[in-house]
Specification:
Helices cover 36% and strands 14% of the residues. With 316 residues, the chain is an alpha/beta fold.
């Protein structure tokens, strides 16, 4: 049983990797596996593991060269996978702005998107990535704003600092959306800051980070409808995922995103397909850097089979 993407685009069956502390050949091997089980897109999270000239932080000593990254992208495309780079432009800045440019930060964890120098550094890096990869879409991250969840809540309080206001989050998305739409490039982003737990009482609460004033639905209402929301659900035990339905009704395109819990992947893919999602993303996160290839390969095989069942290629 499957569903056609409601916007006329082919269904997406994507695999997500973080490109740091791993060899190009190790990822190429997983790309081959992914191609064999039906994936058609690769999301590459670019961090300090690729030595772009305009990377605003300090790259790793074992960073790939840009040519090595290009060889991986060519390898993926030759096997039928499109490639979308993910760039953490606002959150999770440990390797991007945080250590290298402390004076450009709004708080200890988040750069100030209003600053001309922040925008200039981001644009220089973005230009270089686009020139190298020529992607049809770019994932801008924007998940887990510091102060919304986890240890960062306590750390900001200890420093007497406030989380990034929703106005500045929306401003950041607007600036990046303008940069990308002018070039005909889609903007993808994570959706956790756009939803609050009280709006979806029957779902796992851990992934709803829109709890800061102005976030959640109020923030959703301010965003361009042309963006793609990547809705991540990693350990939910239910069968209903109304986040997809709500986002679709509000005019967003949606990709469901899963991790390693098979039941969650199966249930979420089924719901997403039945409620108008464009496809799914399987994430592997730190398991790649830990060389836990048994876990990674299981995710690729199991998720690939589930995605292919619910999001098959459209037949003429």
């Amino acid at each position: 049983m499957g569903a056609m993407a409601t916007d006329g685009k082919a269904p997406i069956r994507a695999l997500h990797f973080v490109t740091r502390a791993v060899s190009v050949d190790e990822i190429k091997g997983r790309v081959d596996l992914a191609a064999s089980v039906g994936y058609n897109l690769l999301v590459l999270a670019l961090s300090d593991g690729v030595a772009f000239r305009h990377f605003p932080g300090q790259v790793r000593s074992d960073a790939w060269s840009v040519d090595e990254l290009k060889s991986l992208v060519a390898h993926a495309r030759a096997r039928g996978l499109m490639v979308v780079p993910e760039i953490k432009f606002l959150t999770h800045q440990e390797k991007f702005f945080q250590d290298a440019h402390p004076r450009l930060m709004y708080n200890a964890f988040t750069p100030d998107p209003r600053l001309a120098e922040v925008q200039a550094l981001q644009k220089a890096y973005l230009d270089e990535v686009i020139e190298a990869l020529r992607p049809h879409a770019i994932h801008i991250g924007h998940d887990e704003v510091a102060g919304a969840s986890g240890r960062s809540v306590k750390e900001l309080l200890q420093q007497g600092q406030a989380p990034l206001p929703a106005d500045l989050f929306a401003y950041s998305v607007s600036v990046l959306h303008g940069e990308l739409s002018d070039r005909g490039i889609e903007l993808w982003m994570w959706g956790d800051m756009l939803m609050a737990p009280e709006e979806f009482p029957g779902m796992e609460k851990a992934y709803f980070h829109g709890t800061i004033p102005g976030y959640g639905k109020a923030l959703r209402d301010r965003l361009p409808r042309g963006i793609v929301i990547c809705d991540w659900r990693y350990v939910d035990k239910g069968r209903e995922f109304p986040t997809v339905s709500v986002l679709r009704k509000e005019g967003f395109r949606v990709l469901g995103s899963t991790w390693k819990r098979t039941e969650t992947t199966r249930n979420f893919a089924a719901y997403a397909a039945a409620h108008g999602a464009q496809g799914m993303i399987a994430t592997t996160w730190f398991h790649v850097q830990r060389k836990e290839w048994d876990v990674v390969d299981r995710i690729i095989r199991e998720s690939g089979a589930i995605f292919a069942e619910h999001f098959p290629d459209q037949k003429n």
